[in-house]
Structures are given as structure tokens and as C-alpha cells.
Automatic annotation (TrEMBL):
Residues 7-146 form the DUF1468 domain. The chain crosses the membrane at residues 40-58, 90-118, 124-145. It comes from the Bacteria. This is Tripartite tricarboxylate transporter TctB family protein. Keywords: Membrane, Transmembrane, Transmembrane helix. Pfam families: TctB (PF07331). InterPro entries: DUF1468 (IPR009936).
């Protein structure tokens, strides 16, 4: 586990440094003067990732005198991998339905299938949550903000 933490921490450090030094400055314009820069939020996120990955690297590379039995065991169980595959399948199916039939079918399928995969079995809760979420988003964008979703 410590080795995996060190490797993932190093990867995240390198990733955030590359994003801060090369990708964000070349791909995001500075913006007009007198306005908050569009680079601000991406830079803040990359700095956050960099600062949070440093302790991961330090803890992963630090030597401990005792043998840790967790280092040999896989940190991810089979059940967790299957859950990841299921929810990834839900997102893939929802994206495909969105492309084929539009936003309403794609969004409805995302909410309904995600609830089913996560274990919700009460039909009233599934239907009510789907209707409330989609109606709420429609009201927010079209009525409150006055813009189209797409």
C-alpha cells in the first residue's frame, strides 16, 4: 500500500506541475484586464492537488521499522471493482441514450439506473427522485437563470 501511495503521489505531483507550467498557460487565455482570470480556478485546483499529493509521497517513501502486512494485500476488493464497473456502465449507457434520444432520456436513465445499481428498490422513491431532480434542473435553468441547458 505504501508503494502504491508513493507512486500515485508522484504521478499526481508531476501531473499538477505539468498542468500548472504548460497546459493551463497555453490552453486558457489570460482574459481581459479588470476581470478575474479564467485561469484562476484551474490553477487553484492544481495547486490543491499538488499540496495534497505531497503528504502522500512523503508517507509512502518514509521507512517504517515494522513489517506491514497490508503492503502485500490489494487495497481494492473484488466487490469494489465490480461496483466501479457497474456504475461506469450506467454512465456509458446514459451517455449513449443521451446521444441517441436527447437530454431527457439520458438524464432520466442516469438517475434511475444509478439508483438501481446503488441498491434503491422502492419504485416511488425512484420515480419521485427522478421527477424532482429533472424538474428542479429545468426550473433552475429555464425559469430562474433564463438560459437553455444545451
Amino acid at each position: 500500500m505504501k508503494r502504491a501511495n508513493a507512486i500515485s503521489g508522484i504521478f499526481l505531483c508531476v501531473f499538477s506541475i505539468v498542468m500548472l507550467g504548460m497546459v493551463i498557460p497555453t490552453q486558457i487565455n489570460a482574459g481581459p484586464s479588470g476581470m478575474m482570470s479564467p485561469r484562476l480556478v484551474p490553477n487553484m485546483m492544481m495547486i490543491g492537488i499538488l499540496l495534497l499529493s505531497l503528504p502522500l509521497v512523503i508517507r509512502g517513501l518514509r521507512k517504517t521499522p515494522e513489517y506491514d502486512a497490508q503492503d502485500t494485500a490489494s487495497p481494492i476488493s473484488r466487490a469494489e471493482m465490480l461496483a466501479l464497473l457497474r456504475i461506469s456502465g450506467v454512465f456509458a449507457a446514459s451517455i449513449a441514450l443521451y446521444e441517441l434520444f436527447g437530454a431527457l432520456v439520458g438524464a432520466s436513465s442516469l438517475v434511475i439506473l444509478a439508483l438501481l445499481v446503488l441498491g434503491e428498490r422502492r419504485p416511488l422513491v425512484i420515480v419521485a427522485l427522478t421527477v424532482v431532480l429533472l424538474t428542479g434542473l429545468w426550473a433552475l435553468f429555464y425559469k430562474v437563470l433564463g438560459t437553455a441547458i444545451l
